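Example 3.2
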Amino acid sequence: MGPPNSNAGTMTASAARVRRNEIIGVLSLAVDFAIGQAVGYGLRSAVASMAVARDLGCDEAIAAESYYQGLLQASGCNAETDVLNALFGDEILLRQDVARIERADPSQMLTLLMTHVGSGREGLTPQSAGDEAFRTIMGAANRVFHSHCETASKLAERLGLSKAVQRNLGQTHERWDGAGIPEGLSGEAIGLPVRIATVVHHCIRLGGFLAAEQVAERVRSRSGAAYDPAIVDAVLPRIGELLADADDGAAWEKAICDFPPDDISLSDAELDAACEVLADFIDLKSPAIAGHSRAVSALADAAAKVAKLSEQDRALVRRAALLHDLGYAAIPGPQRLKQAGSEQARLHPYYAERLLHRAPGLAPIGVVIAQHHERLDGSGFHRACRGPDLSKASRLLAAADTYETLTENRGKREALSPQKAALALREEARRGALCGDAVAAVLEAAGLGGRSKKVTHIAGLTAREIEVLQALARGGATKDIASDLELSPKTVDNHIQSIYAKLGVKTRGGATLFALERGLLQPGKA
């Protein structure tokens, strides 16, 4: 894929309508990155799960549920990634390795745990399956998986998918033998689409490092334990098809373009809302800066208005800003904050463009995103484009993202005041890196005084509960929240239980998603 052929003075915002399933397909591809699977893994799982449902004689409603379960089964994966990072370091590598073992086997889990060490593992080195360190780590990991289920269900709700699909996603980690989570359901109490997609997903994952005969043997060994025996019998004849090399473009055509044929086209407002879902999905990965994507979008949109762009071009800038960090799905969590200049992290604009280019209505957004770290003097990345190649949209997004990033706490680097950030942007413009007009528009939109939001009472939350929710969503432990807010741990715990009850959630991931959706989170400011 070569550099986009764009003009610095004009922008081309595609008039093509975006289908809901294209947004869902992009989310599925981002999840593939996040769990370390080949691009198209979720697409292939969706088509195969639907086919197995039809093989079993299911009606089209169950076939459709199986399709969405295959497509979005792991869509809650970014919830509480910070916990996985603390315990195990690189969460993407961990997820790849988990696919190789039987999670219910304590000895295999012990071996896996011993090979993944993160900062939160200090003093927690299991010596045997079942010892205190093992139980502590597994307890934390299980809480994360609970959060994954709830978050996937909430994302499906925001994308307009049915109650049945939402329920199924909430059962993703259940097992036929009742040893799963979050509810310990067993047998036919688990939704049929879940039972189907579980076997299909695992077959495709195992096919990444085992021959077809070995995959079949492994699947048979789990029949009656993790898997429904009837589903195993239905899937095994399709092993060859499941493991066949598939071009991700062909997978997109089959999964997204061909099904469902009556999928809805999104209005402009619906497309904005769908882009916010994707923005929140990626911001869940880094609680310390959750809300960054929405903050950049609000600033870039205001700057586009200052610059007197057309409504169509403002929409392009606004949506590109929402999705500008989507490529971080492919980057291990710790690198986003600690190694932002690493070669791997520098590829996140490319990954985002790669995720969006299949859909005609989303491809122009991807082109803008691909340029948001480029600079007029060629000093940016990932293609080292220069001024004539950079559109107005990408120039505005670059300036807005730079300002927001400078005014946020990032790891060991404290946030700059708005005034100091403004000086830094003007210096970048003076030396020919950022566009002077874009910088002027962004700083005018920012008002140079910071943009603090007045928090109103939402969902019946008290002002104190909102403070606790914000701290919780940032990854704060109960004792730390108590210390920061000068409360007792018991009082904070009571607030947390009240928050969960009022929001109708059970996990930090679900609470964080609510806070993001309602605009209650903005990255820490100076």
